[in-house]
């Protein structure tokens, strides 16, 4: 194990502490170093009894893994979410003491967080711990980028802190984390299940198709919740381990707040920015997987030529194109989608690439894009108004951006679908589908059932 260069961290801490004038002044100190191979999930598990708030992220390509534990700095907002977060982020970065000799995305000061689907919709008891927008800079962040490993230690210092003592305390926690803990093989059993009466939900789908036929709106995405009770408390690291095994090509994430944890394996990238190169994704239009290769191909071809699905998909393409055009240059969007297979489903997929213009950030792009018609509908305002009035669900963070950003304007956000809110021995799973004028309520219901599978299968279903 590579040990922290004690004197280097202590002198960085000391430098920051000496600058503080008033007793309640605080300053973030961030120290990054390269470390030996460390298992991100075992690091996550080792933090279980040390920190209350753990965060986990892998990109769909698994090029980047982030495991954050603890909160060195938090940012939250209920209104004007993007502006408030951006201002707090910039202020903190301007004042921080940073030692990070690596120009590697996802190292150094990284904020991990997410937001609710709709801040206007009233927040219910279910999601009470999750603010409309919330980001955290973890105390310890393990970054795996390609095959290199980095550890960043972030700490907020005060005037009366003692640098050497603090460095020693941090070193002891670091040792425990890097040692890791075996991820338990937790097998859950579902003892109770509840959901909205399917007939009632399909009735809402019918009302949506009526609304669309009456030309008030073109597409509305409707979601539903499945509430499960287990025989015991769920182990988050074990759920993540199973998602990593069963859901390739997906973003696997967890955002823990005390006893609640929002977990998922989503196939949908909202936006990635790396060294000003922007990548967004249109993912909408769905079909099941075939049981044989031949059947799979047939279904995939039918999906590609299906008018209803192509229309559903095109709403997303058009919206992303218009949403970001003023924020970037060199935008490239293929004329036709391709079919992208995932474990349980296949989707129509169109990648969008561009160059982010100087002066804009990933938060500016998210503000433009969220919610895309893959989760809200089209037009945005009308579809959201329908969802607010009829869906009878607190989506919380489901269907909203979740991800990370670093101090060099790199970042990546996925759309938090195929996800569940875990609460001790209970969980709420969410799934939705795009309703257009010819949607059949029964088929839409069946589609949401398949979309629940990625989470259901790792939760004892
Ligand atoms: C809303 C969900 O999926 C979206 C993403 C891909 C395909 C979709 C569809 O075909 O309806 C949905 O727009 C969900 O999985 O809960």
Automatic annotation (TrEMBL):
Superkingdom of source: Bacteria
Domain Chorismate-utilising enzyme C-terminal: 198-451
Catalytic activity: chorismate = isochorismate
Keywords from the UniProt entry: Isomerase, Magnesium, Menaquinone biosynthesis, Metal-binding
Residues involved in Mg(2+) binding: 312, 447
UniProt cofactor(s): Mg(2+)
Record keyword Transferase present: no
Gene3D superfamilies associated with the record: Anthranilate synthase
GO terms (BP aspect): menaquinone biosynthetic process; salicylic acid biosynthetic process
Pathway: Quinol/quinone metabolism; 1,4-dihydroxy-2-naphthoate biosynthesis; 1,4-dihydroxy-2-naphthoate from chorismate: step 1/7; Quinol/quinone metabolism; menaquinone biosynthesis
Cross-referenced SUPFAM superfamilies: ADC synthase
Active site per UniProt: 219, 268
Gene Ontology MF terms in the entry: isochorismate synthase activity; magnesium ion binding
Entry's EC annotation: 5.4.4.2
Family affiliation: Belongs to the isochorismate synthase family.
Function of the molecule: Catalyzes the conversion of chorismate to isochorismate.
Official protein name in the record: Isochorismate synthase MenF
Organism: Oceanobacillus profundus
Gene expressing this chain: menF
